[in-house]
Amino acid sequence: MHLLDLSVILGYLGLIVLVGFRVSRGVKTAKDFFLAGRSLPWWIIGLSIIGTNIDSNNYVGASGNAYATGLAQANFEWIGAIPAMIIASLIFIPIYWKAGVYSIPEYLGRRYGQSVRLLVALIFTLSGIFVLSIAMYALAITLETYLGWPVVVGVLVSGLVVAAYSISGGLSAVTFTDALQVSIMFGCAIIVAYLGFMEMGGISEFLNRLETKSPTHLNPYLPANHPDFPWTGVILGLGIVLSPAYWIGSQAILQRTLAAKSQWDASASMMFAAMAKTFVPLLIIFPGILAFVMEAQIENPDMALPWVIKNVLPVGVSGLMFVAIIAALQSTIDSGVNTTALMITRDIRQVLLKRSDDKDDLKIGRALSLCILTIAMIAAPFIEQLGGIYLAVQNMLSLFQGPMLALLCLGALTKFVTPQAGLWTLITGVLLSGVLLFSGINMLFVAFISFCYALVCMTTLSYWTKPLPLNELHQLTFNWRER
Amino acid sequence: MADLVNNLPLQSANWISLGLFVLLFFFVWLLPFSRVRAPSGKMFSDIRIWASALIACQLALYAFFS
Q1: Which of A94, A93, A95, A121 lies closest to A106, judged by CA?
Q2: Is the pLDDT of residue A413 over 80?
Q3: Which of A21-30, A256-265, A399-408 has the weakest average pLDDT?
Q4: Residue A483: helix, strand or coil by DSSP?
Q5: Measuring CA to CA, which residue among A410, A80, A119, A105 is closest to residue A247?
Q6: Measured between alpha carbons, how far is residue A349 from residues A342, A352, A353, A355, A368 in Å?
Q7: Nearest C-alpha of chain B: how many angstroms from A238?
Q8: Least confident of A139-143, A425-429, B22-26
Q9: Crossing angle for the helix pair A114-147 and A151-200, nearest 10 degrees?
């Protein structure tokens, strides 16, 4: 690696720690630690949402998929995100914010009872720790590829950098560093796009070459018989179920909006994130398509991004692009640490021990952040051996998405669904998803079928069970008549 | 039913996407909005306008690539 590239990388790491430390002053309560004292403006939260959303799979995997299949990969950023983000911004975020909750499990607990809160928090926590280990491993592998550092050293360095600001500064430090990281990512994307188009002789020449080489690479959808991403599955499963389940139910994403200084800032932050999301394909899809048009000689599609960094970008900029990849991973890790610590501190500990104290929560939150990061660091080097378990956890999370979305939609938009109906729908819906998945049905269709089942099941069960009192429901549901 | 859907031309996916975004546009303007306006009350603080611009952008993208 060139000295200039190395200086850019070390400069970035120093800057992140500095910004993190600066923002961490003034964390005195659990609310400061987990919700930044409810003081964040919309644009910081919006950038942080994008930082949390983009991970290593996006950067390396999406570029690789774009190299192989083309623009269809952009659906995950467009129809697979934008409609759900708009609905989250206008309907769900105002409800969560008005309810004054710290987390999505806490909202579900108030709407459906503490058993649902505990169950959802346990599933989120378990999958969160695995996602953290994976992100830590991916970061270490990236450092090994570009800097030659052994995986253990990479894990140690990245863990210490994240610990330096996220344990003391909490969500406030996490969101500010995320915002900085996303700005770097978009800066790099613009440079890559500019240099790529220049290399090809302009945008129209680029599109002409792409159309000549493979016209299907410009189609946003793949045929209905495609094994992984048939267009029917993308619209029904991704667009109608998985994407809304993520954007209105992901604790890592929504925790930021709950930290907004006003309800308007909370809603505006998600809308701003959706605007940024529209341009994310420039960041993660374009490098793959560029490598395809430039006829990169690579062994597998996942090498598309490294190929672009090596062959298109000049010295210094390639270091900056590498920084963007590190930034994407770091923002996933720091957010995951804070989110998981919150759910264990409040949603699991408080429900099981039935007590709550703000000063205790702050101490426990910090201690848990350190523990979670340490567990992720210890597990990271063994991730390859744990591949089967990781897949099982990922599958478990996908089983959960359809019923979870039904619980959130009916719980927030109607007053008639009952706590008991919610609990039994969640349990039976997850079981149904498991049966469908093991019978070989595509995951996208499983999500759609389990969502439809959960809607019917919850509506039916609610007729025979007792709803919450109206005065409690008023704070937890959307009021359609309000003007 | 599944066969019917599977036999639809690929182009119809783009048209369905465009249709969904148009429906979303109307839905956005039907919602009650007193709680998502900024205290300043300025025109661009109305998030429905942000949503509309975003939907227009998506419509342009799917129309361009159809």
Answers
A1: A121
A2: yes
A3: A21-30
A4: coil
A5: A80
A6: 10, 5, 6, 8, 11
A7: 12
A8: A139-143
A9: 70
Residue-level pLDDT at A33: 82
Find where tokens 């999958």 sit. Answer: A127
* Cα angle, residue A273 at apex, residues B37 and A122 outer, rounded to 5°: 100
Q: How confident is the model at residue A338 (pLDDT cuts 50, 70, 90)?
A: confident
**Does residue A220 contact residue B62 with C-beta atoms inside 8 Å?**
yes
Q: Determine the residue among A85, A207, A231 to mutate to test chain B binding: the one whose Cβ has the most chain B Cβ atoms within 10 Å.
A: A231
Inter-chain CB proximity A220 and B62 less than 8 Å: yes
Taking CB atoms and an 8 Å cutoff, what residues of chain A touch B3? none
Q: How is residue A463 annotated by DSSP?
A: T
- Contacting residues for B60 by C-beta, under 8 A, at least 6 apart: none
User: Could you give the 3-state DSSP secondary structure of residue A40?
Assistant: strand
> Are the C-beta atoms of A76 and B14 separated by less than 8 Å?
no
Single pTM value for the model: 0.87
Q: In whole angstroms, how large is the CA radius of gyration of chain A?
A: 22
Question: How buried is B15 (Cβ within 10 angstroms: 0-12 exposed, 13-18 middle, 19+ buried)?
Answer: middle
Per-residue pLDDT tens over the stretch A120-151 = 999 888 888 888 888 888 778 777 777 778 88
How far apart CA A296 and CA A282 sit, in angstroms, is 19
Give chain A's length: 483
- List residues of chain A with CB under 8 Å from any CB of chain B: 71, 78-79, 82-83, 86-87, 89-91, 94, 98, 218-225, 231-232, 234-235, 239, 262-264, 267-268, 271-272, 274-275, 278, 479-483
Residue A57: the pLDDT is 59
Residue A131: its pLDDT value, please? 80
Q: Which of A10-24, A82-96, A242-256, A390-404 has the lowest mean pLDDT?
A: A390-404
Note which residues in 18-47 of chain B have CB less than 8 A from chain A: 20-21, 24, 28, 31-39, 45, 47
Say if residues A292 and A51 touch (Cβ distance below 8 Å).
no
| Residue A40 backbone phi and psi in degrees, to 5 | -85, 140
